[in-house]
Amino acid sequence: MIIKLYVRSTGDRLDLPLAVADSAEELALMLGTTKGSVMSSISHGYKGWERVEVEVSDAEMYQMRSAI
Fold this sequence. Notes:
By secondary structure, the protein is α+β, with helices and mostly antiparallel strands. The protein has one domain. 40% of the residues lie in helices and 29% in strands. It is built from three helices and three strands. It has a three-stranded antiparallel beta sheet, with helices on one face. A hairpin with a 7-residue loop joins strand 1 and strand 2 (17-21). Helix 1 packs across helix 2 (35-43). It is globular.
């Protein structure tokens, strides 16, 4: 199963994550901005803003959901 994550990172050579969310809305809420701002930053390719796709096994997905 592939899940999509929205990531805000430092954007420097280390590229450390600052916030990771399941949706653009959730990331915007975490960062105190709007969904439009998040989506615009990602679509324009600004450093430190991206949407990534991660492949997760069924067992890992089960563990993530049971941890909530």
